Amino acid sequence: MKITTSTYEDIDEIFRLYDLAVVFQKERFHLHWPVFERSLVETEIAEGRQWKILIDNTIACVFAITFDDPQIWEERNADKAVYIHRIATNPEYRGKNFVSVIVEWAKKFSTENGKDFVRLDTTGDNKKLIAHYCKSGFKFLGMVTLKDSTGLPPHYHNMPVCLFEL
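^ that's the sequence the OP posted. Answer follows.
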């Protein structure tokens, strides 16, 4: 297993995994991801913020990071943190608990990059997902209503947001 930055050649596979994640989300919960802009992922790749977990040269999971997330984290955004977004698992590798793998990677990555926190969020009150993130090491900080969701993907609009932190 290897974690490395994604490349432009990975874009079609990243979007295939996003599409499969939406199918899975629709089966399990009433809230699901929107269609993301290709330019968003292209920018993340160019900035080294789109990552993949490889198993035998196959993309098993993808996720994105950022170092700034002011609309979601508001005043806490002043903290030095790595923010994780859009974890999508290849169905062929489901059940491998990649969130825990990402947690271990993120702890090391944040230390190497002078960050004090690893954070992630999810929308809605998905109790199974909240429990999964907590089991993977995150502390559940509670649910908030965003003051301003302008410019954020549609699943953030008029929905409570669950905040998690290491």
